[in-house]
Design brief:
The chain has about 120 residues and is of the alpha+beta class. About 30% of the residues lie in helices and about 35% in strands. A 5-stranded mixed beta sheet has the order 1-2-3-4-5, with helices on both faces. The longest helix is centred in the N-terminal third of the chain and has 18 residues, at about 5-25.
Length: about 120
């Protein structure tokens, strides 16, 4: 269960949980926490011929809305720009891959955990 007392630790635990979930779903993790000057991509993962640039958002309660609601269009556009930079700098050949912007929302309710995955967001 996530430690709710420390925001950075909570976020890191949510990302770790998302990675475990992706691996169980047969994704291969390509990179974590890719940082550009203007944005960070939490997880870059590959499955089949798809390359996913994934934002992970977690919520401890509904007071601020759902985890997915916390990711707006502006943030997604920044992730798309960071994805372009990753592709230029990675030195890997992903030209035959479909590129996808995705969000994993993790919501903690008492002892329950809900995961929502939107795997192909159009900007």
């Amino acid at each position: 269960m996530a430690d709710f007392s420390d925001k950075k630790l909570f976020s890191r635990q949510a990302e770790d949980f998302a990675v475990e979930w992706l691996i169980k779903k047969k994704f291969r993790i390509v990179s974590r926490n890719f940082r550009a000057k203007f944005a960070e991509i939490d997880i870059i993962a590959q499955k089949d011929r798809n390359l996913y640039f994934i934002e992970v958002k977690a919520r401890r309660s509904f007071n601020l809305g759902s985890a997915l609601e916390a990711v707006g269009k502006y943030k997604l556009k920044k992730i798309a720009k960071a994805a372009e930079l990753f592709l230029m700098l990675s030195g890997r050949d992903f030209k035959n891959y479909d590129l996808k912007i995705a969000v994993i929302g993790i919501s903690y309710y008492d002892s329950d955990i809900e995961i929502d995955f939107i795997e192909d967001i159009t900007l």
